[in-house]
Protein 1
Amino acid sequence: MLHFLLFFYFLVVCVGLFSIFSAYVFKFRFKSVQAGYYALFLLLFLIYGIITFFYTYSYLFKIYQKPAINIIYYLFLFLWFAAVIYCIPFSSHRLINLPFGKLKKTFFLLASCIVVTFLVFSLVLIKSIDEKIYLLKLISDTVFGIALGSIITYSLFTIGTNLKNMTENYHKKTVKRYLYITLLFSPFLVIDFYSEIIAINWKINFQHFKFSMFYYFLLSLVSIYCDGQYFLSSIKTPLDKIHLFKEKYKLTEREIKVLEFLIKGFGTKEIADTLFISPDTIRNYIYKINQKTGTKNRSSIINKFHQESII
């Protein structure tokens, strides 16, 4: 059973790594700022996946009892948790174009330091005394669960109530899928945090199975699928799609020509040199396209075109 879990966790880490790669390809290919912050979410999950894989590996090959292995495991776990407390709220705000002010930065940094300090202190006590270990374990797990649950709940609420701030419609759909999957898996994620206590009190042993790893696996697959679908739709620019876009927004021939160059990744000066007109004229065409299509900048123009090109 543990061999199967170890293989599955390795697969999850590989898929997670590819999902981050696809997110960064999306970011640089389509100049999407929000894709970068979404990739930060995926990176935090990847680190968790690596830690879980390492823990399962050490248990399978019976090296988890070595002091050095324990130190490495808990060091990475606490560093990861400290990063999560700050980075998830930060990414949530940036993802939906919501300011992350000094007060919030200070609060989450302080919360990160306090919670991690408490967990380190609890771990030292658990390792150094023989009495009331179960109670200490229960308290530390509860603090860990409440802190992480609060951060996730805060982020879900922040994103869910401010989706309208996202300028990239296609990425908005990806984030909505992320919200649905997270809400679906929430009860199982709670079980993960209290698996040892459940095993002691209710005699239900999940044998190192982590629902959070399956959740991360599913999230990575959805992310790869969404990025791939968007990317494949942008490889070609058929004339019928250009024509439909032109007819829908009443664009002129010259505006369509500028749009074609924007889709190919040309800059203002490159387009101006190719069409033998001034850069200011190109900026004027881009401004008119923005007005007609209801977009704010060249990135949102490209995203809107690709979004409406997906069948």
Protein 2
Amino acid sequence: MGGKATARFLRSLGPQRLTHGVASERRGPFRRVESPAVRTRFAVVTAGALALAACTPVQTVRQQSYPRLEEGVEPIHKVAVAPLSLAGELADAERRLAIERGVGTPPRTAGIAPADAAALVARYLAEAIAREGVDVTTPEDLARALAESGVSLAPREVARLAGERFGAQAVLIGQVARFRERRDEIAEDAAASVWFEVSLYKAPEGEKLWSGVFDETQRPLSQNVLVGTRYPGGGSRWLSVDELARWGAEETARSMPLGATAKRGP
């Protein structure tokens, strides 16, 4: 390469990116180095990205508000919690149990029964809502009223009964699809896992106000610090499925448009 060509080559690389050095077999007579200014800019950009990630809230409950809520409703101070139905893998497990009972074989799976898991989540939700300062009709009381009245489980029918029988301003209806206990092994799918979905309906009219989905499989801090620190204990230990479900109920109750937060209209 001639002298002029070499000069053009050096200018194309930029003065901040190159410095004259000792020849090497891999890099030739010049080696690439980053100037202090480049390193400073990189550090600032990296720090900014980390700060932005830290300030961005991790959504624990996926929520959706509906037009009736946005129009504005009176503050909700009394909620009836309906028994939760089964969906997904819990519904499949319940069907298998029914078949096994029918043929007289012992259950093949250990752990809590699907119906009992749904009852636990409903109870945790009722308790969490009560801790928000709201008067709660329990799933057991509403279930007895539904059985006595013989009404269907359609949301409008349940909301009407909850309003007329208990004076509820809203009724919570939902389903549980996953309630999986942590296994004592090292694997990505060995952690406790819970999925449930609930919807809040205005009583006695039955208009849908709000819905939320809790879908959580505990992840270790090593995977995502921002996610792991949300858990009870700051992610310092593995949770049981019972602890995960309780935490999910608390997060869901805090997300609901209850009390003074219910009035979303002008």
